[in-house]
Amino acid sequence: MSGADAATKQREPESLSALLGGRSGTVDATAPPAAFVIAWLAGGESIVTGVAAAVVVALLVAGWRLRRGARPRAALVGLLGVCVAALVVLYTGRAADFFLVQLASNAASALAWLVSITVRWPLLGVVVGAVLGQKTRWRRDPDLLRAYNRGSVVWIFQYVIRVAVFAPLWLTDQVVALGVARIALTWPLIAACIAVSWWVIQRSLPPAHPGLRHPTE
Fold first, then answer.
1. How many domains are there within the chain?
2. Which of UniProt's keywords are assigned here (predicted)?
3. In the predicted model, what is the mean pLDDT of residues 21-37?
């Protein structure tokens, strides 16, 4: 086995999916929107019925995640998002507006990731560095900084794809289609994003680089 192959093999266990927490949070995030759409339809397109179902499911998901050992903040963020979406749709009286928060957050996220790359503080590096307890050490490694910059570009496309799908559906009041899109573009898209960004990072690092856990300075 060549030195390059050996170095690549050493980096393989450093799964980006494992570092970012796997699929549980993204799968849980689809339950309240699905509950909203199902209850909205079952209740004769009643927004109150849809909101009640979404909030109840969000509470159950938050409780389930806490019992599984999730951090309280991580479990409550999803619940807060559902509550904000519920308030928005109750205020506007337009069912499609339940997904307005998701649309706005994806547009804001795309902009934030773009800015982070521009100022050379790629958010992928910030997140992974925090998970690994490296603080800002990764930024002093030019190879890692370049790899995180390139990997972060992939994440921008994830948010742009969602905005491109959600926006026309929201504008035309396609509530059921929005619910389906929310499910289809959550875990499957994030899984693809993680896989591609991990591939980009691996290809961007020199063969002899020790990996994400070991930034060189």
1. 1
2. Membrane, Transmembrane, Transmembrane helix
3. 76
